[in-house]
Amino acid sequence: MAMADDQILLDERYEIAPDRRMPKFDSPGAEAFAVHDRNEPGRPMFALMTPGHLPCRYLGLTAKKPPSDTPVMWPRASGVVDWPMAANGGAVVWGRRPALIFDAPKGERVFGGEVAPPRPMTEPQLARQVIGPLITVVRELTQLGVPHRGIRPGNLFYQSGNQGSMMLGECFSMPPGFAQPALYETIENAIPDPYGRGLGLNADDLYALGVLILQLHIGRDPTEGMSEEEVISAKITAGSFAALAGREKLSTSMAEILRGLLNDKASDRWTLRHLDAWTTGQHFTPTMPILPQRASRPIRFGDTDHMNRPALAHAMARRWPESMKLVDSSDFDNWMKRSFNDDKVGDVMNRLMGAAASSGPAAAIKDRYLSRLIIWMNAQSPICYRDIRVNITGMATMLASVLDNQPLLNQFVEMLRGRLVQVWMNEQVALNSDQLQVRRIMEEVEKHIEKPAIGQGVERALYELDPLVPCRSPMIADFYVTNMRDLLPAIDAALPGLGEGTIPMDRHIAAFIGAHLRRSIDRELGAIAQAQEEADRRIAILRLLAMVQQAYPNRKLPRLADAVVAMLAPALNSFHHATVREDAGRRMQKLGKECDFAALALLFDPNGSFRRSDSLGFTAAKRAYLGLKQEERWLEKGGLTHPDRTRLIGQRAAAITSAFVASAAIAAYSVYALL
What DSSP state is assigned to residue 213? Predict the structure, then answer.
């Protein structure tokens, strides 16, 4: 909640000061602000405010934490708090943002701070100051099932002062691996866009630890002067150990630990057990890397001669237009078929082209073929499609990052519609538990990605991929809504800043409800999409809002209720009987003040009492009207003056008159006789 003095309170304890920046504790993508702890005044603390368009990984973790003495910066508290978004004419516009509260580290940053970087560290120094503390961190996080994914020089702090043992910085303010240099990422995590690297494994932390040990030992970046693409290509071609440490003079013991930690195959990489044994002087037979098959001759592409398929695939993924031309060339065809002594390559390429033609739009067949070819050429490659490079466990954060970039968003949708995620999974020898979960999620995404209606399409895919993604509706994007309980209150809070007559529903809100509500809303979404009349569409929107309110009761929504009542004006005019319409209007105003959307929906329900009364009265009125119209037409056609009718009426009148006269004569005669 926001306080009167513009301080923000979390957990009724931590006051965050938005006007007191603490830039020395910033993390890439997240700014730091001063924090006052009401329970422990004077305790040095800060808050990292994470981006409002991305899921915050920490908010989805359980309450488990590593022991307090674990040398890693771990949030003391977290939550979504009120936050000043902008100033509008002097008035502060408030929204909501995730906040992570940390104790300020007692030591300085090892790199990038005011202290000079350390000189090359000896093996004993590394074991005592780096390897020992960081093994403790990785062990605790492994037990929690939480990869750190932020082990790099810029995220290291001294535990105290400006020397001695080190500790790791935080890892939750941005998507996993977001700020990692390609040097510190495994091949499969270095290729994707930083937003699309995915959660990864605890084994990835051990790889990063190996690179950190090497850099601290030699006192410099082992890839200095190389581009990111050159670093990845060298790792693919020679293996990470040879690419990074092959030219360095290392002791037998140091070479042993680096070979173990920098193994590119996760299952062969050293584990915590190996590290524990190494620290006690035990030795292990090194596992040699499995390098890609070498071609009999190079192929020139991207100003580089490539001698294996994975390295070429990586270069192709970064140069899509040129790659489209390359795969059409006879040189590429001959190199693929003749340079690896593999007679089946031609059949594989034909199979990939046939499969590309069977899924997705016809206009993108060649793009899908190239994507499938890259996946086949490099098993360590993520999904590459035009400008998109993403691991399957990083699709949600990647999609969230490109949502406002229409060209990239179109490419992402084409990737999903082309079933390239399923293609990638089918090409893998084995999938880990996180990847298997993606397979199940994609079964749900497939049901919606091809549908253009509200609540479907790419918006639905976004919220199905990760339930922690905040609702990106333009109405409530500033309120960081990640659960259904906050949805209606956020719409209520946002309405004063929206235009008059705003309908409190759009594609994102409908998709968010569809992904989060514990029941199918396909019928309600269909009613909105298929409504022929605007009044029917608005009633269908009301029913959807009523479902949310019934699932998460909340009657303190005055602004939303007013918007709903205004939205229903055309629907009120659909009542035919004036009296019923007036009664329904009074009832609608009353229910609006009570914020009872379910009762409002019943008011307009075809089977409700008001609708039935109006329908029965309207049917009777139509029947009476039809009768009057028929009589009018009969009169217009001369029904009263037709000869046949006048003759018949005359005969009847004459007969009646004759009978009357006869009766009168008889009566008169009877009276006369009596006299």
Answer: H
3-state SS, 550-580, equals HHCCCCCCHHHHHHHHHHCHHHHCCCCCHHH
258 contacts: CB under 8 Å, gap ≥ 6: 210, 213, 214, 241, 245, 250
Pick from 267, 132, 250: nearest CA to 186: 267
Spell out the residues 6+ positions from residue 437 whose beta carbon is closer than 8 angstroms to its own.
none
Longest Cα separation, the chain: 161
CA torsion, points 260, 262, 264, 268, in degrees to nearest 10? 20
Query: CB under 8 Å to 218, separation ≥6 — which residues?
Result: 120, 248
Burial class (CB in 10 A: 0-12, 13-18, 19+), 552: middle
Look at residues 368, 187, 329, 184 and name the one whose alpha carbon lies nearest to residue 264: 187
Distance CA 471, CA 548 (A): 15
d(CA 611, CA 628): 25
Strands (E), 255-376: 299-301, 304-306
Question: How far from each other are the two terminal CA atoms of the chain, in whole angstroms?
Answer: 113
Buried-exposed string 321-358: b where 16+ CB fall within 10 A, e elsewhere: eebeebbeeeebeebbeebeeeeebeeebeebbebbee
Is-contact 276 245, C-beta < 8 A?
no
Query: Which pair of tokens denotes residue 88?
Result: 């509008």
Cα–Cα nearest to 382, from 244, 597, 177, 662: 177
350 is written with which tokens? 């034909």
Residue type, 90: G
Compute the CA torsion angle 120, 124, 130, 131 (nearest 10 deg). Answer: 130
One-character DSSP codes across 133-200 = HHHHHHHHHHHHT------SGGGEEESSBTSSSEEE----SSSTTTT--GGGS-HHHHSS-GGG--S-
Lookup: tokens for 539: 């009633």
- Residue 197 CB coordination number (10 Å): 29
d(C-alpha 244, C-alpha 604), whole Å: 70
In 3D space, the residue among 464, 463, 465 whose CA is nearest the CA of residue 473 turns out to be: 463
Alpha carbons 25 and 46: distance in angstroms, whole number = 8
> What is the enclosing helix (H) or strand (E) of 242?
helix 240-245
Instruction: Supply the pTM of this predicted model.
Output: 0.89
339 and 292 in contact (C-beta within 8 Å)? no
Residues 6 or more apart whose Cβ sits within 8 Å of residue 58: 75, 78, 98, 100, 172
Nearest CA to 574 out of 605, 596, 529, 620 is that of: 605
Q: Are 93 and 86 in contact (CB under 8 A)?
A: yes
pLDDT along the chain (675 residues), means of 10: 66 95 96 96 96 94 87 96 79 90 95 77 95 96 95 95 94 96 97 96 97 96 94 96 94 95 95 93 86 95 94 96 96 94 91 91 93 94 97 97 97 96 93 93 94 96 96 96 96 92 96 94 94 92 96 95 92 73 85 93 76 59 64 65 65 70 66 58
> Which letter does DSSP use for residue 219 in this model?
T
CA–CA separation, 575 and 612 (whole Å): 10
